[in-house]
Here is the input.
Amino acid sequence: MPEGIEEILQELVDREKIREVVHRYCWAVDRGTLEEIMEFFDDDSCDLALGSGQRYTGKATVQSWYERFIQNREVLRHFIHNQIITIEGDQAFSKCYFEATGEVQGESIVVRGIYEDTLLRVRRKWKFVEKVITMDSSDPHEENRKKSLRAAQPPSRLGTFATLLAWILPS
Here is the structure.
């Protein structure tokens, strides 16, 4: 725990910079380019782990996953909730809930989950060295529910989940 005013101020600045990294990452994933996404990952060491058990180690492998992901991205907007940040020197840990709305293969969906990030201060910038993405749930968007009700068919959770997996885990 910081004791002096300078340490307190530095921790506050670091927290805000980390918050900014996570928010800018979301913006880049939603609308940005592959290069913009990869700017948030450390060049020397980075891992991406998905709650499904898949793990991608090394920047080239992580970049390859994101390249496939953004090729499948049609419309995506995601939001961060209840972010908690712990700082230990030049290493930090951030965890937060996310909620994403989007369109995948013509189907509107809502996805909820958790980001658990380990960041490292590299040349005065915070970079992801590990990003763990765990999905908690997914639902068809309200628009799809209304279409389904008009067609007198309940929304297909299995179909939505299969579509979501195809979106999150591109082949």
